[in-house]
Fold:
Amino acid sequence: MQTEVVRVDRTKIDAYVMEKAGKILKSGGLVAFPTETVYGLGADALDWEAAKKIYAAKGRPSDNPLIVHIADIEALSKIVKEIPEAARKLSKAFWPGPLTMIFEKKECVPDGTTGGLSSVAVRMPSDEIALALIRQGGGYVAAPSANRSGRPSPTTAQHVYEDMEGVIPLILDGGAVEIGLESTIVDLTGSCPVVLRPGFISLEMLREVVQEVEMDKGLIAEDSSIPPKAPGMKYRHYAPRAELKIVEGEMERVVSYINKKAMEEPGVGIICTEETSKHYHAGLVKCIGSRREERSIANHLFAILREFDKEQVTRIYSESFESPGLGQAIMNRLLKAAGHQKVQV
Ligand code: TXA
Ligand code: MG
Structure:
């Protein structure tokens, strides 16, 4: 299959291109498209034969459910049994945007789309290209991140092309995404909303809207004694080919530990920040962004992991990025990429 990459200008969306993309979705095909978080791999969410193709294209385990993307709030009540008060408040505050909510599903959502679960994950993205595609595609687009399973999520159309060339007919290229980390997932099927995956919408932001919100215990547990509630969170993910280790501690000690390792070991890669980059004297140094602008760190994380795959490195040391805002989401992805390997210095 030939994979076409078509550039789409967000300020002047080409109706002809969107119509063509919508036709592919309606006839059961796949289209990759930008969202504000990461690129998605879309299929008609209410057509199980179509959604099945997503699993094949990604090499994704079939028990890992998909997020259904909608373009307007009216679409929600057609696929979920009940909209709890907390969900109404959260949707008012954060939709369209990087928040996914989990509800009890109605019959019309195929079991295949939800990995056999009785619940369904729903998100209304804010990206104009995504919204136009969802409308053209019938209103319900199932879309996981458009990477091969286990690879870092794609933040540019080029990343999607690397993973999906020859496998899907069309990639809509809207340039680099705005955020760079996948949406925050909140489960609303229980008595208290629970965060299943941290993202751009932090726990603090959620608590400003609904006072009671908890973190899934499976996310907090240091060991893997408690499995996470979102099936996808249990899989190895984002792992670069080289072994990745996260170094934690006071910044001066971190820099000196990594410097020592880079001088002793051959083929060392380093993930650092603008604040520290000039202090490294060996190894292949890549700057992820600035600690003063943590959005820049989120934005470059997946791209940097992909870049290291093209380099001759066998071990990567990364600084740690704990912070009250985006830090939780950044560290969640980085720890998964590192297979939870941490060094305390
Ligand atoms: O930002 C995003 O959410 C991106 C863009 C494309 O919208 N999508 C995305 O999808 O990250 P994916 O498939 O890579 O991750 C979806 C996560 C998985 O961890 C999956 O297990 C979880 O959502 N999930 C989906 N439906 C669920 C459900 N009913 N119950 C619990 N977890 C669910
Ligand atoms: Mg994913």
In short: The mean pLDDT is 95. Residues 294-308 form the longest helix (15 residues). The chain has two domains: 4-215, 243-344.
